[in-house]
Amino acid sequence: MAMALQVEITHTFHASRELVFQAFTTAEHLQNWWGPKGWAFEVSEADFRSGGVFHYSQKPDDGDVMWVKFEYGEIDPPEKIVYTSYFSDEAGNVVRAPFDANWPMRILNTMTFAEDEGQTTITLITAPVSPTEEEAKTFEASHDIMREGFGSTFKELDTYLAKK
């Protein structure tokens, strides 16, 4: 895979690595901060282990429900999470992204968690899995939008962690 297709995003949280890791691996935490601000969020399935899945829906006030599913390849508490994500239907079957027919069908995500003096820096590397040429172009053209989206989501987690 071409390095240009990878997106690397880092963010530092003012919380312990254990708490930040838990925020990414428990439905009780995730339902309080994951996704775009103001969107409804519901967990359908949460099995946070290697081989497990996280299946959820999210919905903006003025739009349709979108389903997303994560399939976990590796969970190494509290250091690393590797998962493949994709848009799905309510039953969990892979479907095309509702916003772009050329969005890659599957995305591989690797998150690492490093703690230093009570702060935790996560590094997220995300890349399409076996994209077509059109999917690769769409993904590459979306790097800035992905950084903005994850940045906004991580700010939601900042706010949530400040209450813990």
Automatic annotation (TrEMBL):
The UniProt entry, under InterPro entries, shows: ASHA1/2-like_C (IPR013538), START-like_dom_sf (IPR023393)
Q: Which Gene3D superfamilies match?
A: 3.30.530.20
What are the residue boundaries of the Activator of Hsp90 ATPase homologue 1/2-like C-terminal domain, all occurrences included? Answer: 15-161
Q: Which family does it belong to?
A: Belongs to the AHA1 family.
Q: What is this protein called?
A: SRPBCC domain-containing protein
Organism encoding this protein: Cohnella zeiphila
